[in-house]
Amino acid sequence: MSTSNNDQSDSTELTRLQKRIQEMEQQIRHLKVTEAMLTESREHYQTTLQSIGDAVITTDKSGLITGLNPAAESLTGWDHTKAVGQSVEAVFNTSNVTTGEKTESTVKKVLESGQVVTMANHTKLIAADGREYHISDSGAPIRNKEGAITGVVLVFRDVTESYMMREKIRVNETNYHYLFEHNPHPMLVYDLNTLKFLAVNDTALVKYGYTREEFMELSVLDIRPDDEKEKLMQNIITSTQPIQQSKYWKHKLKDGTLIYVDIHSHSLRYLGREARLVVVLDVTERARAEQELAESEERFYSLFNDSPIPSSINRSTDHILTEVNLAWCVFFGYTHHEAIGHSLEELHIIRADEPAHHLEPGNQENPTTSMEATVHTKSGDKKQAIIYFNQLRAGDQLYLVHQIVNITERIEAENKIREKDIQFRKLSANLPDMIYQFTRKTDGSYSVPISSEGIWNIFGCKHEDVREDFDPIVRVIHPDDAARVMNDIRYSEANLSDFTCEFRVKVPDRPLKWIFSRSTPELLPDGSITWYGFIANITDKKNYEEALLKAKEKAEESDRLKSAFLANMSHEIRTPMNGIMGFTELLREPDLDSDNKNNFIEIIHKSGQRMLDTLNDIIEMSQIEAGVVSINPTPVDMESLLSELTDFYQREAKRKNLILTFEKPARKESIIITTDESKISSIISNLIKNAIIYTRRGVIKVGMHSRDETLTIFVSDTGIGIPANRQAAVFQRFEQVDISMTRPFEGSGLGLAITKNYVELLGGNIRLVSVENEGSTFYVELPCKGEKNSRAETLQNEKPIEIKPAGNSISGLKILIAEDDEPSYTYLSTILKAERCEVLHCSTGTQALEYCRNHPDTDLILMDIKMPGMDGYEATRRIREFNKHVVIIAQTGLALTDDRAKALAAGCNEYITKPINRKKLEELIYAFTNAKKK
């Protein structure tokens, strides 16, 4: 039982295995069939892919290329084996045609959307070798049987040719529309059936005067005059030509104006209608010109036939006469019939052996030619004539117009003139200037048939040079005068009026000359004009006139500057006077406190000092202009002088927070020069004061150095500087850096002019170096001639100036004040009485003289110079006759440099100018009375 069961079990297993084997065999057969089908399908797919016209690229779902067909290889430039496994963007490199920017990947769009994606036609493919194609492309997803995306198939094609065709069509349409709209000529499109306008360009709107809407309501008949409408309709109906050109139609504008036009038109389909495009050319001006030409030709023939000048027309090819006028027939003795059809040679008018026979017509540059010739009449008479040749073209034929001017009488007259020329030259040989005969010939050229020997002195040429040619004279006329001279000649020629002209002549290697020419014209029978006249050398006269003009301009400029100067002086005097008068008035206030009182007094003092400075400048400048400045040379220790002046202006500099320094020379020797101490002091003072005035902040340096025999003094500052274009002006009289009424700095502006004059009087030179807004340095260079001493020797030889020591008094002195001005006397007496002096007063020179005779014990006289009757100079001289010891100090408003010398010469001990400084006065009185006591 057991064995039987086992056998049965084995049999069942065997059966199952056999069945399984059969199933597997069947599956294998099915797989082989399937594989064969797949192979066949793959081969079919590959064949299809390889043979399809479009380019195909396949990718996996990562965008990596799995295949591409030959068309894709050709367009991308990639080999299949190299492309597989590459990203699609590396192989399929596309950009926008218009912008050039890289386009978004089609494969990426398909993978993201899962949809078919079609790209626009403005895509450009850039192949691996740089070639570019316009393409259209689309991408579609590849799905498996479950519908999942396993890749993308990208299909594209080269559409470059069709793209270029479309682009060409688009450009053509754009160009056509542009040409239509921007054509400079009116363009019209009208319907051949209704004759209504379908389109017009902007030029037509402007030309005809209608709006576009108005034009669209019109027909082509509406712009034609009534007399042409029937002709137009007949032309439209009968014309079979697609392109037409018509001349001289008339068109009517909106305002009714008629214009002549040429029409160019052709048939076309426009908006589905049979139409005609018309281009309109306005030829109104041409039509008028042609009409005028016809009228001109008519006038020409009328003038030709009626002209009194013998004239003829002949062909240029064979010289056959085609027309002659009546004057020609009379001149030569031939009838019109005898002349026409023959040449001048055949008629023996011009002989073959004579120069005129060889005359050729002019070229394009010079179409008119003329020459003198001998001509022969029918009777055999010889005549001298000028033959003018003018070209005349009629169609393709070139003609020559001959005009003949009889100059026989002129030639005879010229021969007679030449005979007299020798006599004329003998008469004119000794004339200093020139007489002449000047001629304009009938051909328009000029010559000087007769001229005296003076032509060589005037124009540098000989008579023979200009007998037939005017050019040698024209060449030496100044280029700026040549056109004017010729215009004056032509005016005299046209009006037969006297020729009068002044002009310049420049002969090489000679100075420029001014010439005056005057002549009278005479019209000769042959039409030429001759002038008889003279030429004079007026160079000296012109130079004198120019000098006068410059002097006048200089005087006017001086007047202008003086006016500006006077305006400035008015300001510089009235402004401080305003302070003096105003604050004097305020001092009268009864309740004025001491602080305000002191402040007002200080302002009055400053205003007075400012006005005094202005007056001193005016006086010094007046003395310079009058030429009465004298030099009083004395030895001057320059280091001491510069040091004293620097110390003197320290207070003024400190008020403006400026640093004022004196840079002492490094050498041990003192520099002593012989010069006028007062003037050198004035020079340096002016420069330091200017530096303080024009410096807002910084440093002012004063110094000196010597080299060879020149002493250089400098004053430098860090002020406003002087513009380069005004640096020379600051030294001029009546000129300043700024002469306007808006100057920010006070002062007369005469300081530098005075300084420059003083420097030059001392034999020196002044110069400046300045940069605007940075500062200026003034250099004064004076001759020193080696005058140097050691510092110790100099100090030893110097005598100290004794001034009033502090605490000493001048009390007890008997002082006579000779002063006719009551305020001045009151001022002086107040000062002296405060010092306990005995004060006496007289108001004339005579009174002063009598007082001194009667009071010989008088200690000191303050002598005013200008007093009624006897002046201070005379009174002093007379007092000195009997009193040699009394101290006399001149006190005056005269502040010129020489006034001190005059006072000392009259016998005064010293001189002090008004307004009188109290301290200085007391020092002077003390110095002289103390010395007298000693």
Q: How does this model look, in words?
A:
- The strands form 7 sheets. Strands 1, 2, 3, 4, 5, 6 and 7 form a 7-stranded antiparallel beta sheet that branches. The protein has a 5-stranded antiparallel beta sheet with strand order 9-8-12-11-10, with helices on both faces. A 5-stranded antiparallel beta sheet has the order 14-13-17-16-15, with helices on both faces.
- α26 runs parallel beside α27 (872-882).
- It is built from 29 helices and 35 strands.
- With 934 residues, it is of the alpha+beta class.
- It has 6 domains: 52-161, Beta-Lactamase, CATH 3.30.450; 183-287, Beta-Lactamase, CATH 3.30.450.20; 307-406, PAS domain (Beta-Lactamase); 410-537, 2-Layer Sandwich (Beta-Lactamase), CATH 3.30.450.20; 629-797, Histidine kinase-like ATPase, C-terminal domain (Heat Shock Protein 90); 814-933, Response regulator (Rossmann fold, 3-Layer(aba) Sandwich), CATH 3.40.50.
- The protein starts with a helix and ends with a helix.
- The longest helix is centred in the N-terminal third of the chain and has 50 residues, at 2-51.
Shape: flat
Q: What fraction of residues sit in β-strands?
A: 25-35%
DSSP strand count: 35
Our count of domains comes out at: 6
Q: How large is the radius of gyration?
A: 59 Å
